[in-house]
Each structure stands twice: as C-alpha cells, then as structure tokens.
Amino acid sequence: MKKIMIYRTKPYTVLCYEALFRWLLPKFRENKTLIEEYASHRAGYYGEKSADYFITSYPHSHAYIFQGLRLKNGSINFQIDNLILTPMVIFIIEIKNLKGELQYNPRTKQLIQIDGEERRSQKNPILQADNQKRQFILWLQQNGFPSIPIETIGVSTNPSSILTYLDEDKEAKFIQLETLPTTFDNLYTKFTRSIYNQTVIRKLNKKLVQENNPLKPDLINQFRIKEQHLAKGIVCSKCGHFPLIYKKRKRWECGKCGDVDPTAHEQKIYDYFLLFEPTITNRVCREILQINSPKIARRILNSMNLEYSGNNRARKYHAPPLEKYPQNSKIPGGNRSIFGD
C-alpha cells in the first residue's frame, strides 16, 4: 500500500519570512534582499508542491513517500525535496522551479537560465541530488541499514520553462515535470529484486520521521532587525493599520477601517514563535498584543490549545509543530503584487 510518511507543508523558510513581513513597519518591508530571498524560497516551495501530484502517482503499491526531508550526518545537514522508498530502490528527486529557457549541458554539468535579457548560472539539480544521495548512503550506514540502489532525478516544474539539452545525454536525468511518470517506469524496470523486507522498511520509515529536522532560519539576526523596525501590536490584515484594539466582546477591531477579527491574536502569537522564541509567557503575550490584562492574555493563550509547562507566573506555552502553523496567512501592505498574490 502506497503511503505518504511526511506531507509537504509550507516550510519554516517561507513561514518565517511571511511572519517578518507582518511584523515589520511598512517602510522596512521594501528591503530588496528580503523580498528576493522570500520570493526564491516561495517559488521553491510552490515548485515542490506542483510536483507532489506526479510523485504521489508513483505506481508501486509498496512505495513510501517523504515530501521534504532534512537529515543530519554529524555536523552536516542535508535536505531532500522528495524521497520515495520501495523494497527494491530509493528515488531522490530534486526540484527546480525556474522560468525562461533552461540550457543544460550534461557534459560540463552546467545549467544556464535565460530569462529575457538575463543569463545566469543555476545549481545543477542532478549534482545536488547526487550529493544528497552520498549523504543519505552515509546516513543509512551510520544507522545500521543495508545498502540499496538509489536513483536520482532532477525535475523542472515551471510550466512556462523550456528545457534544452546542449549535448546528448543517454540517461536524461534532468526532465520536465510531465515526463516524470515515464521516467519512473523506465527506471523501475531496472530493479526486480527486493532488498528491504517490510520489517526493515517499517524501521526505516520510523527512523526517517523521527530524524526529520526542518530548517528554521533566524531572520531577526540574519537581517539585524531591531525593535524600532517592528510594528507594536496586531497589524490589520486588510488596511495595515495598527494596533488592533481588543474589545469586550472578545474580538479585535481596527480603528481605521473597522474590520473585526475574533482570532487576530493567533497569527501574532504564531509569528512570535517563528521569529523569536519557541515558548511564550503571559507577560510577553501582553507585550506583543498590546493588552494590559493577565486574565485576557491567559484566556487567549489557553484558547489556542498550545502545550505548556510550569504553573502560574512560571507557565510557558510552547510552539506547535511545523504542520500546525496556518498555511494561507496574508501579508499586509503593498508587497502582494511583488509576491504574485
């Protein structure tokens, strides 16, 4: 039975940037580097999402799919966009979401992107996947799993891109998304002998899920964000005014546009976890929401069903796991056209 072991959710590398845009004062959201890096991470995520349908359509009945996997060998972390585990072979798939013409030279291993008048070198997805393969082989060895054939594939997911080979490539391992099922068929016929029995597969599945360690960037330090760069209180998701005011009817109201939101505090608290600390106290909650009542703060925190430790004033509420964060949160201000929203 085919099974997805790790589902793809919006990664920390996207969530943290979106949280930062919601916290920054409008004039600081226009930072070019910030916008470009967010756009790159966002494009990568949506490229991976677009490939998920084809990958989950993999025909083998005993395939186990990991949509985004980050493991560690000693001090080295390595990220795998997609891993498919079967009894006969493992597939590692690297995704590229690049627009324009992509010129790939299998002899020199160089990938050139031509977008309008711009011509730039991009990372070779096959070399990236092969490096992940080497790291994963080492990881398997260190964790006591037997060796198994591993195949690597690079996939271009942008529907408007044109992929051109500048030299003959008999393997053709960098492909357009639509040809992925055919590539699976061709590769799978090479492997007929089961290497892993179900006991080994169950053990490996469990270990991969346990060891998965998603990257969470520290954007506050990376961009040297100071307190004066940040908006105080909750920013209105409709007009950008802040702070929203907490009314007696247990709702937040914008003093400018009149928008009402009973759960606006949730995103602010989630964003705090993404940008600052993995725990929050009643006092810090009051500070970031710009409220004075410990009772209201306690009610708000309890309503979010967060795990907690400690009692009374020492109580700390803990950040949720990655998959529990909101997936479709808005970014306030005038940057939506830049991001394609």
Describe the SSE topology.
Blueprint: E1 3-6, H1 12-23, H2 32-56, E2 64-73, E3 76-85, E4 90-96, E5 101-105, E6 110-115, E7 118-122, H3 125-142, E8 150-156, E9 162-165, E10 174-176, H4 180-188, H5 198-211, H6 219-222, E11 245-247, E12 251-253, E13 260-261, H7 264-275, E14 279-280, H8 282-289, H9 294-303, E15 308-309, E16 316-318, H10 336-339
Parallel strand pairs: 1-2, 4-8, 5-9, 8-10
Antiparallel strand pairs: 2-3, 3-4, 5-6, 6-7, 11-12, 12-13, 14-16, 15-16
Outline the structure in words:
There is one protein chain. With 341 residues, this protein is α/β, with parallel strands linked by helices. It folds into two domains: 3-211, no CATH class; 231-339, Arc Repressor Mutant, subunit A (Orthogonal Bundle). The protein is built from ten helices and 16 strands. It has helices at 12-23, 32-56, 125-142, 180-188, 198-211, 219-222, 264-275, 282-289, 294-303, 336-339; strands at 3-6, 64-73, 76-85, 90-96, 101-105, 110-115, 118-122, 150-156, 162-165, 174-176, 245-247, 251-253, 260-261, 279-280, 308-309, 316-318. The strands form four sheets. Strands 1-2-3-4-8-10 form a six-stranded mixed sheet, with helices on both faces. Helix 8 packs across helix 9 (294-303). It is globular and about 70 Å long. The model is unreliable at 334-341 (pLDDT under 50).
